[in-house]
Amino acid sequence: MFNRRCFLLGSAATLAAVPAAGAPIRVGPMTVARNRTVAGLSAPVEIVDDKFGIPHIRAATAADAYFGQGYVVARDRLFQIDLAYRRDLGRLAEAFGPKFAKHDAVARLFRFRGDLDAELARIPADILACARAYVAGVNARIDEVVADPALLPLEYGILGIAPLKWSLDDLVRQREASEGNTDDSVRRAQLAALGLLDLDSIVAPLRPAWKMTVPEGLDAAAVTDADLGVLRIGRLPFGGEPPAADPAAPAPRVSALDQATSADRGNAGSNAWTIAPSRSATGRPILANDPHLGIGGFSPRHVAHLTAPGLDVIGGGSPGLPGIMQGHTDRFAFGRTNFHIDQSDLFILELHPEDPEQYRHGGGWKRFETVTETIPVKGGAAETVTHRYAVQGPVIAHDPARRRASVLTTVAMQPGAADCFAMIAINLAKDWASLRRAFAFHPSPTNFHYADIDGNTGWQVIGFVPVRKAGDGLLPVPGDGSHDWTGMRNFSALPSAYNPAKGWFASANQNNLPADWPRDRIPAFSFRDPYRYERIADVLKTQPKHSIADSIALQHDTLSTPARQFLAQLPANPSAAARPAVDLLRGWDARLDADSAPAALFEIVWRDLGKRMLAAIVPAQAKNLVTEIAPSILLGQLARPDARLGADPRGTRDALLDAALAAGWASAQQLLGPDPAAWRWGTLHQVRLRHPLSAIPAIAKAFPAIEGEGSGGDSYTVMARWLGSGPGWNVGGGSSYQQVIDVGAWDNSRILILPGQSIDPRSPHYRDQYGSWIAGDTLPLLYSRAAVDKAAAARIMLKPS
To answer: What's the pLDDT tens digit per position in 76-124?
Structure first.
């Protein structure tokens, strides 16, 4: 997924309140202008909003259509995209004060420092024109709201700020600051120093299977969390200063710049499947896709329809990035899930003993390149920061006392890795052959699904793969040149299929490398547990004529493979304290439905059992490093207990399971009441969406929380609705956008977007799909001109100035 733009999507529960500032807040009906004169268009553009809030943009040129997309995204999501843009530019402190300066410094450290002209010269003229037009559309809407304060989103008056104008150059310079798997590599080095590297499989079993070794030249005992440097900066301090990082504390699991979008990386992913006409009830291909991202704040997708000569594309886009990520054109449908490519490395550099501005590389000493920047600060003096860059990339930690520095190298920082052109290229493609040319502009690791009106289906893994001199990316590596990257492979070196014989294919972040894939070309070892994929495959295999309704039902399937395997291990003779739990669970169908009492009990027991198993199998010296247990490891110990559970593995297993069942029953009574007949998984598993800055009282008052319903599912069901971070039970992430495409009969396609198209509570589309999403009642994705006009709710004409 393209996650750089998913700013502040998660819960704001950790943000402290700040006093309101700026003009008085006016909460009334949203003002809708019907005709506008704007700068940047070559001809008039008509925008038809249907009754679901989806804008259908009708333009004379493709560039003007993308102008329209920029305009409507800014109309519906201006504060969301503006704050993300400000964050990525490193311009928060000038609006919010000195506490944000260090965050700005990190954002600026990860700007692209290469040849901008060369970056733009790589892009075909038609794609570049569309990207420039998108930016102009955003700016046109910003000009409107600045000129007419009645159009301003409410946040600006509360916070006392104004939106920034956009620039394509800045979009190209902004690059991903996520550490990727870097914190995993640090943990592995620390385990290796203890002689316990094998314990890492408890947290993250390698898929494909692989034998880890410490890279030659790396002193694993010297690796600490401090090597992650600025990546440990913490959350954005809206309303309060985050706690200072403790050098001895474990590094955060989330990028410094994406704290508020956090979701356990073990849950990140998506589902997609493509059905050929031979297996379809319609006689046409079907393509289904439900990307999994954080749930709790702003929606990570905005739906739009772009029409112009040579362009007719509709679907979900990422707010702030031009183009449609999942949807269909008039020729083909397309979807995407996360593939896995290890696109980052942590390099450990040795500093010169007499000059810490030099580091060992290539048999000699090199001097860091330094860049000094001035960060404007509201209410205070500007701050000056100096950034260092080694040959591998930006220096994230510099410690002369230890003669040590570390560098984070990522694909995103490489030439050609700007992510703001890929979707346009894909949207402008006409068929499989032209799509393959478009894939060259797509850096992020993705399973791309395809189905066209001629009945063809395709799957191509896309993304950039670094070529390493040595090493497998699993641990930090020496920065002396021995493990540097030497180049980049693109999608042509990755797996694909076209019209597979079985008539369907699916991806759910599982290891889908072909069985004969070369061992020296494995792109990553972080593929997810296969539970969702296996369930999808089991269903599709048994449906010789799969329908649109079948795809919708499968997207909402709650059968849990871990729960089913857990039920097989229920004790025949439980203790008296555990017996009520066993009696309730025995005979359960292992479906995590919202109205299920056994589902609620299972989730409580499962969490408790995982903690007990970790305590039993992890030695004391590694407990601060091994803090999670993968479901396959937990289930493996239940089914086949081994020596890690001591001299009597089966006896220990039985005691752990019985204790978890008894404790789970007691916890369920405390959480849900004394009567098991009244227990419901949805009572705990609530779907609550709040403004990411709702800890600010004026924001909370102006932006009502969207809540009141519970959900089924969890991390390992096809209907992925995983738990949020912390001790609670709320939904933390899942498929806030869903699509099922009837290829060729486009108006039959279905969609859902949680909670709606707009983030403005004055809009009727602020929460209009919340209930539908909870119930799984999909809505039509209208496409034909006749269907759109019949359902039109508003029309806007943009005229060039």
So the answer is: 999 999 999 999 999 999 999 999 999 999 999 999 999 999 999 999 9
Type of residue numbered 67:
F
The closest of 432, 501, 513, 459 to 274, measured between CA atoms, is 459
CA angle 254, 256, 260 (to 5 degrees): 65
For the CA atoms of 560, 287, 773, 746, what is the dihedral angle to 10 degrees?
Answer: -160
Classify residue 315 as left (phi > 0), alpha (psi -120 to 50) or beta. left
Which two tokens mark 720? 């992925």
- The type of residue at 601 is L
DSSP per-residue string spanning 53-103: S-EEEE-SSHHHHHHHHHHHHHHHHHHHHHHHHHHHHT-SHHHH-GGGHHH
Q: In degrees rounded to 5, what are phi and psi of residue 469?
A: -60, -40
Per-residue pLDDT reduced to its tens digit, 332-355: 999 999 999 999 999 999 999 999
Q: Judge whether 681 and 594 are in contact, CB under 8 Å.
A: yes
pTM of the model: 0.93
CB contact set of 404 (below 8 Å; sequence gap of 6+):
222, 227, 348, 349, 350, 351, 397
How many CB atoms within 10 Å of residue 669? 14
Distance CA 234, CA 255 (A): 8
- Residues linked to residue 371 through DSSP beta bridges, in sequence order: 387
Please name the residues in contact with 438: beta carbons below 8 A apart, sequence gap of 6 or more: 422, 425, 426, 428, 429
User: In 197-325, which ranges are continuous DSSP H helix?
Assistant: 200-203
Domain 561-592+597-679 part of CATH 1.20.1070: no
* Polymer length of the chain: 801
Q: How far apart are CA 547 and CA 279, in angstroms?
A: 9
Rounded Cα–Cα distance for residues 455 and 280 (Å): 11
The Cβ of residue 217 has, within 10 Å, a number of other Cβ atoms equal to 14
CA dist 687 and 729 (Å) reads 10
pLDDT digits (tens, 9 = 90+) for 227-238: 999 999 988 887
Answer yes or no: is pLDDT of 243 > 90. no
Q: How far apart are CA 784 and CA 315, in angstroms?
A: 14
Distance in angstroms (rounded) separating the CA atoms of residues 369 and 359: 11
Q: How far apart are CA 75 and CA 69, in angstroms?
A: 10
- What whole-number distance in Å separates Cα of residue 663 and Cα of residue 670? 11
Residue 455 Rama label (left phi>0; alpha psi -120 to 50; beta): left
CA angle 539, 541, 547 (to 5 degrees): 65
The enclosing H or E element of 668 equals helix 649-672
Rounded to 5 degrees, what are φ and ψ at 231? Answer: -70, -10
φ and ψ at residue 592, rounded to 5 degrees = -90, 65
Q: Are 327 and 312 in contact (CB under 8 A)?
A: no
What is the rounded distance in angstroms from the CA atom of residue 697 to the CA atom of residue 692?
Answer: 12
3-state secondary structure at position 759:
coil
Question: Which residues lie across from 477 on neighbouring strands?
Answer: 347
The pLDDT tens digits for 12-34 are: 333 333 333 333 334 445 545 58
Q: Please give the C-alpha separations between residue 90 and each of 13, 101, 238, 374, 610, in angstroms, as whole numbers.
A: 24, 8, 15, 11, 40
Which tokens go with 791? Answer: 């359902």
> What are the distances in angstroms from CA 448 to CA 271, 335, 435, 461, 502?
11, 6, 10, 6, 18
* Contact criterion met (CB below 8 Å) for 306 and 65: yes
- Cα dihedral: 58, 62, 64, 66 (round 10): 90
- Give the CA dihedral 86, 87, 89, 92, nearest 10 degrees: 70
Specify the DSSP class assigned to residue 765.
T
Is 751 within 8 Å of 303 (Cβ atoms)?
yes
Where do we find the tokens 């083909």? Answer: 332
Q: Is residue 764 predicted with pLDDT exceeding 80?
A: yes
Domain boundaries, the chain: 561-592+597-679
